[in-house]
């Protein structure tokens, strides 16, 4: 049936004029809604393609460590054990510090690094843990993240006092790879695949791009 927009009278489908008021009767265009839906889908696909391209060409633009997702984990607890320079227990959770690597048992500097951590974060003291939400655990199941003791960032303190080295292979994986302290100690990744550092020709002269190479 066709509805007359003038008098709202129902007319036969084949009617071109309303039998009641004589006005032309227009059939509703059934293609309008599908066309609008298709147009909307095309716009969404174009927007998604642009975001995907930008995230690939510039991996740090959409992984800023200053923007925490809703799922990020923060934990307040007590230091119950210091295992070595980059591993400790907060309550019953084993924490592996993100982006830093201290000497292992038997290597030079092992005891110094462990003693340093025990001084900054002594057993029984309060500590704050912030999860590395882009890589919450390592291959051994230990929680990865930052540890704060007495308002001091342990990850940074180990680097500052030469008790650890930066883990360059994880700079592009960690949520904290673009933090100032991490970049200051080597996390100036030019390419997340080749891991070329800031002093590589890729990051020199007219090729320099701060979002990829870090501050000059």
């Amino acid at each position: 049936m066709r509805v007359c927009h003038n008098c709202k009278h129902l007319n036969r489908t084949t009617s071109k004029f309303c039998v009641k008021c004589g006005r032309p009767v227009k059939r509703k265009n059934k293609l309008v809604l599908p066309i609008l839906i298709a147009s909307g889908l095309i716009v969404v696909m174009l927007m998604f393609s642009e975001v995907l391209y930008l995230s690939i060409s510039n991996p740090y633009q959409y992984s800023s460590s200053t923007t925490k997702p809703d799922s990020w984990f923060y934990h307040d607890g007590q230091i119950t054990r210091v295992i070595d320079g980059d591993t400790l227990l907060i309550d019953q959770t084993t924490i592996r510090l993100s982006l830093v690597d201290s000497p292992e048992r038997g290597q030079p500097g092992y005891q110094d690094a462990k003693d340093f951590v025990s001084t900054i974060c002594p057993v029984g003291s309060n500590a704050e843990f912030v999860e590395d939400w882009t890589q919450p655990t390592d291959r051994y199941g230990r929680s990865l993240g930052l540890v704060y003791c007495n308002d001091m960032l342990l990850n940074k303190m180990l680097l500052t006092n030469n008790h650890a080295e930066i883990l360059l292979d994880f700079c592009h994986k960690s949520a904290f790879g673009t933090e100032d302290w991490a970049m200051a100690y080597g996390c100036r990744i030019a390419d997340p695949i080749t891991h070329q550092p800031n002093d590589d020709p890729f990051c020199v002269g007219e090729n320099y791009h701060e979002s990829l190479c870090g501050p000059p």
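Residues 32-57 form the longest helix (26 residues). The longest strand covers residues 74-84.
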